[in-house]
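in:
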C-alpha cells in the first residue's frame, strides 16, 4: 500500500516565537577582564524576565548592553529584529537611583522623556498625569523628589519609563533601596502593570524570592565571566493572595531549587 504523504498545505508551520529582544553570542571584556561570555537569550514580548546570579557575574553589564548604553566586545543584541547600536525609544532604562532631576517637579520628571522628543507641554503633561496616577502618585505632581520617600521616587522613575511608551522596560534592582513593605507593594504594582500593559520587563535582582514571585522567566547566570547557567520558568499559582502564593509548595520548591543551583557559585 502506498504511504499517504501529507500535502504541503497540511504541514503545520511552527509559530515563530514573538521575541522582542534577542541576544546573540554576546561577550564583554573590560580591558583584559572578561565580564560576560557568549550569552544567547530570547526575551518574549510581554513577559517579565529577571536576571539573577552571584555578585559581579555581569547582570548590570548585560542589561546595559540591551539598553544600548554599553557596546559589546562580541556578538549583538537585536530589538524587534534590528541590531542595537545605542539607546532607542523602544527601550527605557529605570536606573537603580532613578536619576531624577532634583530641581524638577514630579510631573516634569515624568514628562522629561517626552519633553526631549519635543512634545508640547499640555500634551506631555496629560500623558505624565496618567502614568503618575497609574503608579499611585496622583496628587504628588507638583512635589520635588526630596519631598518623597525612596519608594515614591522609585515610582516616579517607573512612571517616567512608562510615559515614553517604550515596549521594553529595563530595571536595575528596582526594589533594592526600599524597605520590605514598599518592596512588596511595588512587586504587586509591577505584576498588575504587566497585566494591563503589554510591556516586556527585564530586571536585575539579587533576591531569589523576588525573582520567583514576579517573573515569567528567570535567567540564572554563572560566576564571572557570566554565562547562562539555567533558565527557569516558575510554575506558581498567580491567582491567590500574595500570602497564599508565598506559602505555596511550588513557590517554595522553586526558591529551593534555584538556591541549590546558585550556592555553588558562592564562595
Ligand atoms: N566599567 C568597568 N570597568 C571595569 N570593570 C567593570 C566595569 N563595570 C563592571 N566591571 C566589572 O565587571 C563585572 C561585572 O559587573 P556587573 O556590574 O555587570 O555585575 P553584576 O552582576 O551586576 O554585579 P552586582 O550583582 O554586584 O551588582 C564585575 O566584576 C565588575 O567589577
Amino acid at each position: 500500500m502506498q504511504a499517504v504523504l501529507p500535502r504541503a498545505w497540511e504541514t503545520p508551520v511552527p509559530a515563530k516565537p514573538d521575541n522582542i529582544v534577542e541576544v546573540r553570542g554576546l561577550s564583554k571584556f573590560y580591558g583584559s577582564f572578561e565580564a560576560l561570555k557568549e550569552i544567547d537569550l530570547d526575551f518574549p514580548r510581554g513577559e517579565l524576565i529577571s536576571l539573577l546570579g552571584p555578585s559581579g557575574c555581569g547582570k548590570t553589564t548585560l542589561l546595559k548592553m540591551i539598553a544600548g548604553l554599553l557596546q559589546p566586545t562580541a556578538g549583538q543584541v537585536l530589538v524587534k529584529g534590528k541590531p542595537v547600536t545605542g539607546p532607542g525609544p523602544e527601550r527605557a532604562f529605570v536606573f537603580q537611583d532613578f536619576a531624577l532631576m532634583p530641581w524638577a517637579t514630579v510631573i516634569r520628571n515624568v514628562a522629561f522623556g517626552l519633553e526631549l522628543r519635543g512634545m508640547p507641554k499640555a500634551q506631555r503633561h496629560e500623558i505624565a498625569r496618567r502614568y503618575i496616577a497609574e503608579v499611585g502618585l496622583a496628587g504628588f505632581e507638583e512635589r520635588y523628589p526630596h519631598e518623597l520617600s525612596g519608594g515614591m521616587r522609585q515610582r516616579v522613575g517607573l512612571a517616567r519609563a512608562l510615559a515614553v511608551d517604550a515596549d521594553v522596560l529595563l530595571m536595575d534592582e528596582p526594589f533594592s533601596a526600599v524597605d520590605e513593605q514598599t518592596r512588596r507593594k511595588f512587586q504587586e504594582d509591577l505584576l498588575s502593570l504587566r497585566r494591563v500593559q503589554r510591556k516586556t520587563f527585564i530586571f536585575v535582582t539579587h533576591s531569589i524570592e523576588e525573582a520567583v514571585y514576579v517573573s515569567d522567566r528567570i535567567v540564572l547566570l554563572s560566576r564571572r565571566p557570566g554565562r547562562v547557567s539555567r533558565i527557569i520558568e516558575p510554575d506558581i499559582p498567580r491567582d491567590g493572595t500574595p500570602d497564599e502564593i508565598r506559602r505555596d509548595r511550588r513557590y517554595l520548591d522553586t526558591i529551593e531549587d534555584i538556591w541549590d543551583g546558585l550556592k555553588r557559585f558562592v564562595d
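note: The mean pLDDT is 87.
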